[in-house]
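Researcher: Sequence recovery benchmark, item below. Answer with residues only.
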């Protein structure tokens, strides 16, 4: 069974682990954020277009059946 860790020991371990993390630079963070926004816009445009096209096609099918 694992030994119990006190809250103070836990916080020390957390600080030690966060010191090992390689944090991205401000430039890397901005570029990644911009890439995410661009991909969201591209995906939204694609799904909007696909939805409009399918809605139009379904409308044609339903009008033809009546």
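Model:
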């Amino acid at each position: 069974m694992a030994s119990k860790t006190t809250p103070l020991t836990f916080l020390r371990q957390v600080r030690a682990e966060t010191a090992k993390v390689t944090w991205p630079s401000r430039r890397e963070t901005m570029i990644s954020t911009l890439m995410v926004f661009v991909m969201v816009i591209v995906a939204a445009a694609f799904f909007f277009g696909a939805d409009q096209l399918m809605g139009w096609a379904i409308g044609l099918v339903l009008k033809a059946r009546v």
